[in-house]
Amino acid sequence: MELVIPVDKLSFIILKAREYDAKVAPSGMNGNAEGDYSAAAGLLEHHGDDSIRDEIHHLIDDLNDEEAIELVALSWVGRGTFAAEDWDEARTIAADEKGSHSTAEYLLGTPLIANYLEEGLAAFNKHVDAL
């Protein structure tokens, strides 16, 4: 299977999605009485002005239709919704559903999206390029 989306572009999306997936909901904590709350811990919290989320959103929005369809289908193979042998069916369904949602919003709303994309690649004996 040949991918329409270049592996280096997909690798960068996965790298950024890993950064995004590593973040957690804001705790609302400003530190305890001893001041043990580290300011660095705040870097791992999602905030409304999250630059990583914005960057991933732009990366996905900049994909052409075929690449976006393939990205969604690849995530479905990675999470086990479709087997690698069902690639054509996964792509067809992703294409049919493309107009009903924002690809970026859909994928960013999927917990562990980086893992699913990487597993999808692995299902086709392809691997993330080291960046």
Can you walk me through this structure?
With 131 residues, the chain is mainly alpha-helical. Helix content is 53%, strand content 0%. It is built from six helices and no strands. It has helices at residues 7-21, 51-61, 65-79, 87-97, 103-108, 113-123. The longest helix has 15 residues, at 7-21. The chain is globular. The chain starts with 6 loop residues before the first helix and ends in an 8-residue tail after the last helix. The relative contact order is 0.21. Residues 39-47 have low confidence and may be disordered.
Strand content: under 5%
What is the count of helical runs? 6
Q: How would you characterize the largest beta sheet?
A: none
The gross shape turns out to be globular
Low-confidence region ranges: 39-47
Helical/strand content category: mainly alpha
Rg from Cα: 17 Å
